[in-house]
Amino acid sequence: MAEWERARMQLAIGVGFAFAGAGLILIAAPHFREMFNAFGAELPLLSRLLIMNSPIALIMPVVVIAIALGWPRREQRPMAALIAGLAMFLISPVLLFFAAYWPIFRLAATQ
C-alpha cells in the first residue's frame, strides 16, 4: 500500500471513530434529557454540555480533521488523527455515563 493511501486510510478511520463517538452521544442524550427536564434540578456543567447540548458532540470529527491538518510533524499527522479519533470514541461512553448518572446520584444523596 502506498504511503499516501495508508495516510488517507488512517485519517478516514480516525474521523469514523470520532463520528461513532458523537453518534453514541447523539443517540443516548435525548433519553436522559427528557428525564432531567422532569427533575427540574440544576445540572452539573458536564451534564449540561453533553446531555442538554448534545449536538456539541459533532465537534469531535472536526477536531480530528483539525489535528490532521495542524499536527506539527507532517509525517505523523495521519497517525495523530487516528489516535485522536480512537481516543474520542473510547472516552465518549465514559463521559456520557458520568454526565447521565452524576446528577441522579447527587439528587439521591440530597434526599
Largest sheet: none
Which secondary-structure class do the elements indicate? mainly alpha
What level of helicity do the residues show? over 70%
What share of the residues does DSSP label as strand, in percent? under 5%
Helical run tally = 4
Which radius of gyration do the C-alpha atoms yield? Answer: 17 Å
- Parts with pLDDT < 50 across at least 5 consecutive residues: none
Q: What number is the mean pLDDT?
A: 90
Q: Tell me, what's the shape? A: elongated
Based on the model shown, name its key terms.
mainly alpha, elongated, 4 helices, 111 residues
Structural notes for this entry:
- The chain contains 4 helices and no strands.
- The model has no long low-confidence stretch (mean pLDDT 90).
- It is an all-alpha fold.
- 82% of the residues lie in helices and 0% in strands.
- Helix 1 packs parallel to helix 4, helix 2 crosses helix 4 and helix 3 runs antiparallel to helix 4.
